[in-house]
């Protein structure tokens, strides 16, 4: 279904080139504006309005940003957080990545926040204790909310084993903006896949507190989407098929349409 993926890559390169060119034009415009006569910049500035954002040194939430609905109208889509949860090896990263490419091919603005990557940067000071896992999810929930509020379809791929932590992210978002995607894959399959050898290490006692082995995974009980590992014939479903199911969901629920 999305097996045309490798053919998309040259196009992705071209898009990047175009955006760099645009940025350069933008910088050029700024430069000429600074050095330009006041009448030229006056004409440009007459299209702007100043916004009072209050005392920025005070820590208080201030409204004043362009409203989300307006950004969504510009983008022709609705901002949302697609929160992939499931055991290690359940295919969160693979399906999220396949979906992101499929959305990009349809001209959608997306971002993908992936557990491993975020733990290299923003959350590199956090470990795997229950407390640190909660803080990990809280931070990523806040970041994903910022993206969704900007109208971006935000794909988030974290084991996020505790229901309470996932629910507190859900509670931070407007109704309909948090889409829980449960990768319902039995642990035996995840353990067979074990691409990073983590289950093997956990079974050998070399990793403590490993989800599904000696730390619990709490299944969602009201996930918007449940990605079953098997089809009706008992065959494992491919990442392309799972991503296609998610595209259908997004289309059916109106996420791929802006406000009219
Ligand atoms: N639907 C699928 N069918 C078969 N193998 C899959 C599927 N999804 C993922 N995989 C494979 O399983 C392994 C784990 O996938 P990954 O996306 O890294 O899981 P997670 O991010 O949940 O830890 C990878 O080797 C990947 O190629
Ligand atoms: Mg992953």
TrEMBL record:
Record SUPFAM superfamilies: P-loop containing nucleoside triphosphate hydrolases
Catalysed reactions, as listed in the record: adenosine 5'-phosphosulfate + ATP = 3'-phosphoadenylyl sulfate + ADP + H(+)
InterPro entries, A to Z: APS (IPR002891), APS_kinase_dom (IPR059117), P-loop_NTPase (IPR027417)
CDD domains: APSK
Pfam families for this protein: APS_kinase
Record domain APS kinase: where: 78-228
Listed GO MF terms: kinase activity
Superkingdom of the organism of origin: Eukaryota
Enzyme class: transferase
Pathway annotation from the record: Sulfur metabolism; hydrogen sulfide biosynthesis; sulfite from sulfate: step 2/3
Annotated keywords: ATP-binding, Kinase, Nucleotide-binding, Transferase
EC number: 2.7.1.25
Alphabetized NCBIfam families for the sequence: apsK, PRK03846.1
Family listed: Belongs to the APS kinase family.
Task performed by this protein: Catalyzes the synthesis of activated sulfate.
PANTHER family per the UniProt record, alphabetical: BIFUNCTIONAL 3'-PHOSPHOADENOSINE 5'-PHOSPHOSULFATE SYNTHASE, PAPS SYNTHETASE, ISOFORM D
Protein name: Adenylyl-sulfate kinase
């Amino acid at each position: 279904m999305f097996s045309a993926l490798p053919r998309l890559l040259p196009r992705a390169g071209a898009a990047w080139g175009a955006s760099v060119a645009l940025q350069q034009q933008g910088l050029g415009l700024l430069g000429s504006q600074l050095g330009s006569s006041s009448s030229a910049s006056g004409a440009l500035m007459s299209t702007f309005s100043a916004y009072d954002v209050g005392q920025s040194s005070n820590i208080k939430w201030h409204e004043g940003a362009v409203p989300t609905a307006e950004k969504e109208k510009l983008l022709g889509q609705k901002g949302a957080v697609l929160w992939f949860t499931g055991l290690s090896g359940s295919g969160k990263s693979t399906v999220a990545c396949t979906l992101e490419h499929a959305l990009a091919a349809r001209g959608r603005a997306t971002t993908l926040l992936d557990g491993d990557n975020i733990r290299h940067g923003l959350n590199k000071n956090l470990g795997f204790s229950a407390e640190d896992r909660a803080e990990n999810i809280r931070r990523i929930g806040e970041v994903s909310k910022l993206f969704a509020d900007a109208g971006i379809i935000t794909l988030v791929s974290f084991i996020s084993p505790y229901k309470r932590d996932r629910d507190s992210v859900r509670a931070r978002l407007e109704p309909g903006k948090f889409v829980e995607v449960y990768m319902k894959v039995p642990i035996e399959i995840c353990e067979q896949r074990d691409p990073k050898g983590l289950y093997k290490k956990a079974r050998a006692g070399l990793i403590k507190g490993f989800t599904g082995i000696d730390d619990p995974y709490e299944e969602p009980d009201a996930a918007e989407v449940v990605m079953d590992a098997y089809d009706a014939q008992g065959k494992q479903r491919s990442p392309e098929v799972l991503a296609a199911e998610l595209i259908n969901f997004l289309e059916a629920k109106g996420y791929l349409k802006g406000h009219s």
